[in-house]
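#onboarding

Welcome to the new folks! Below is a worked example of what a typical request in this channel looks like: someone posts a single protein sequence, and someone else replies with the predicted structure as tokens. Don't worry about understanding the tokens yet, we'll cover that in week two.

Example request:
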Amino acid sequence: MTSMNSTPRNIVLIGYDGAQSLDLVGPLEVFAMANRYAGAQAYNIILASLEGGTITCNSGLRLADFTPIAELPAGLDTVLVAGGDETGLLSMRGSGLTEWLQARRDKIRRIGSVCSGAFVLAEAGLLDGRRATTHWDSCNEMRSFRPQVRLEPDAIFVADPPFYTSAGVTAGIDLCLAFVEADLGPEVALAVARNLVLFMRRPGGQTQFSAGLGVQAAATPRLRTLIAEITADPSGDLSLPELARRAGMTERTFSRVFQKETATTPAAFVELARVDRAKALLETSDWPLARVGERSGFGSLDGLHRAFQKRVGITPGEYRQRFGRVAA
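Example response:
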């Protein structure tokens, strides 16, 4: 476990009228649970807004006891801006919040956003020339709004210190778990994830939509089970004859049906599934690249490199540098 500071880290979650409540409550629960498993008050969690008091979320839920940003303490460790509806976000653009962020950018260790909260950071100019992400449905708008941002639309979250952006509601939880791991160690982060009944802590570079989910959504039930099996274990024999046998079809029929139902070939899907698995291993392990390639189903290190250059546009080593574990 990483040694803790003698004083708690001040974590500020910024909301406003129209904010998504889960963008605030999700991170709050992660940090509060981390205090429990750390065995000490590792985090002092503060809900804040421009004026303080009570905000009304986009669902109609009212949240109280917000601190005005002007009254926040000087020593802030992490600030996260929640996403929200269009009206709420528009009210934040050019507001006192963007001015406050600009003035404090060099005094806060981590400044981040959940979902469309990235627009507030972008409005403040904090993401210019930096890698960032937001909810998949807002990516085109972000490109038009702030073309200076180096948008990575598929990522769950992106760390370009000192700025951190995440995709949707649950991606904000993933980002906060990564913060907890960096601050307090993997044991505490895992304990928090288990308590919140999360399937796993998703690494930042994991795509918002995996190859398996995208293809399963289009396929009919007869192929969904096979697709799920390929996604779960892409390292075995996934040749066309073997896949056709498992589907109970001739090779010709299987190829035709698979492409008709999924709009891709069996070979292309297998390659995508193996790239997804390699991404996860690069993000979560320190294994040599050859071992990552082997565990992902690629027959050689060259095969891993070729697939990454084709599907991702960078080498596996470069991918690990970008999306490896968030540093403390």
